[in-house]
Predict the structure.
Amino acid sequence: MKLYLKGHDYKYATEQMLLMLFPGQRPEYPDTPPEAGEDSLALTLSRTKGRATGHAVLTWAGRRYSRFAWAADPGEKDRLERDRVLQRVLKNAFYRAGTEALGREPPWGALTGVRPVKIPTKALTRGLTLRQADAQLRDLYRVSPDRRRLALDCAQAAIAVRESLKPEELSLYVGVPFCPTRCAYCSFVSADVGKTLNLLEPYAQALCREIAAAGAMLARAGRKVRSVYFGGGTPTTLSAGQLHQVMTALEDHVDLSACTEYTVEAGRPDTITAEKLSVLRSHGCDRVSVNPQSMSEAVLRAIGRAHTPEDILQAWALVAEAGFPVRNMDLIAGLPADSEAGFRASLDEVIALGPENITVHTLALKKGSRLMLEGQGLPGPAAVAAMLDYAWSALRTAGYVPYYLYRQKYMSGGFENVGWCRRGTESLYNICMMEELHSILSLGSGGVTKLIDTGAGSLKRLSNPKFPKEYIQHIEEIITQKEEIVWPIS
């Protein structure tokens, strides 16, 4: 779609709304005016007499739609607040024109960000009531009733976790970017272990060196680890011996005396063995994930999984026998070859297994994934909406409550990913990561450390090399970077 910005240069905000309302369109910024009837948007910002006004003139499918939005002009004293308000009026004007053209409103209304829970969290922190925070989501952003309830539930969980944190605490992420095979929906830098088996041992050795450097740095800085999270990829792609090697390094070099939560994503059932689970338990891991994504054999084949539904059940039995206090299972709504009935059957089967946590993702067509290139056989937005509606009803009926959520680009239907739990089994790491409540120190290939200064409201990112081979080759520089980290006061 051709975009014409007048009186401003808020390209990113405009493109966010374009992506949400018209996901098949890509932005163009031509030098010449559009031809008559050509799909286009003219988005104008004017600021007069203390008021900021956004005006959207949208031409779509041969028809013209003109809509306004306005707010009190915040002036120039606070640039962040100014940009926030001006972008909101522009996005709301575009939203009103776009939804009239489409004849429908997205479930998250005019919200385009990946962390919608931050809005009600801030409102409740300022002293607003639940009713007032709900009205803000409704009136300013046009969020649907169901999504408002979801956001408010998660906001209350985030506030409870934040109140439990101490200034010196952080979370530790340990990345293992290997998987047995590459799923069709995946765009993460995860190496197919069948092609990179020779990297596993040198990767584990390099990771142990980074762990030692990180532990020394944390001790000097007086920092305490509140939660540990092994993610990937699939950490249990490592052998039992390699897992023991890495987890022993963590115990030897990092002070875990303040750690209240230790999670490992076992993830793929075809990597889970009784021996590996025994290693995890012996090193203090108390939370583990088994992520089937679907209980349908046809869907598993369509996404490139090498295991069967029976393998999932066998892996789950091993996890139950190992005695982990908190167990998670993941499902994805909108996978190829799936249907409303198929998703319902998968969810019912997972609920019957009794995990303490269930995460329901919505398929996101990510750049670099096979599905993004093929894009065939996918359920439509209406079918995905029905899957999620069923999930909400079935999970609440079964006693689960939502505790964290996030959104992604190219997500089917503009929906969300939601973590559900039995009360008292919320994942502190997931909440802190998504709501950016404290710093996250990330180790391993592709790790992104987030240094968060809660007092100043600032965030600094430090990235490790994305690819395992690069990570191994540059471990000396990575260790140096860890040693030079300057921690915010918080």
The chain has a mean pLDDT of 92. The chain is about 40% helix and 20% strand.
